[in-house]
């Protein structure tokens, strides 16, 4: 491969680096033995900058042009980013609601018992029933009044009164679905051998 620029990266169809080239695998190289390449790359791709520096690492990565494209993020030379897979969370979902309906179980029936205190002793007061006066038989001249009957040919309704009912509201739980499988973000790809020139023509600026 004649006269490449030092630091030039090419794609090879074979799986090794030709003489004077090195694979772009992020390996550490010595500055003394690669001074011209170090002047061009510095520590853009890593290294301590005093005795060694790193070559670019394109293993499993797709190169993109540096700079800021229209409507895109700015990319600096040597910057790495992106992930191969991503797991979605609720933070990635659009705002939404879940609709749930509850079907009634029909009419509710029951009984209400109202306790009342009575007495078998003849009444001696004219006060209304209360905590110290309870309902008892009516007695006139030592003769009890006849207020009760065994016949049931009539009916009446007590004055309406308030009743407090207590219960538990039904709990609605949305079923959990899915198994948190990460989503693959990688486009269809083809593995290629990227190599960088260690020797060649030093590239001069225009």
TrEMBL record:
InterPro entries: Phage_tail_collar_dom, Phage_tail_collar_dom_sf. SUPFAM superfamilies: Receptor-binding domain of short tail fibre protein gp12. Pfam families: Collar (PF07484). Residues 7-63 form the Phage tail collar domain. This is Phage tail protein. It comes from Trinickia dinghuensis.
């Amino acid at each position: 491969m004649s006269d490449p620029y030092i630091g030039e990266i090419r794609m090879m169809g074979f799986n090794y680096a030709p003489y004077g080239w090195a694979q772009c695998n992020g390996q550490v190289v010595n500055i003394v033995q690669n001074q011209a390449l170090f002047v061009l790359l510095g520590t853009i791709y890593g290294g301590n900058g005093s005795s060694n520096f790193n070559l670019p690492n394109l293993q499993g990565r797709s190169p993109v042009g540096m700079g800021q494209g229209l409507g895109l993020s700015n990319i600096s030379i040597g910057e790495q980013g992106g992930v191969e897979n991503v797991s979605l969370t609720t933070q990635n979902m659009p705002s939404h609601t879940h609709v749930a309906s509850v079907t009634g179980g029909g009419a509710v029936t029951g009984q209400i018992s109202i306790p009342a205190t009575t007495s078998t002793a003849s009444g001696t007061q004219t006060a209304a029933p209360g905590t110290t006066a309870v309902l008892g038989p009516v007695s006139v001249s030592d003769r009890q009044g006849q207020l009760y009957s065994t016949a049931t040919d009539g009916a009446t309704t007590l004055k309406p009164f308030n009743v407090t009912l207590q219960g538990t509201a039904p709990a609605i739980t949305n079923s959990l679905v899915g198994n948190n499988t990460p989503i693959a973000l990688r486009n269809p790809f083809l593995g290629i051998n990227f190599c960088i020139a260690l020797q060649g023509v030093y590239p001069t600026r225009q």
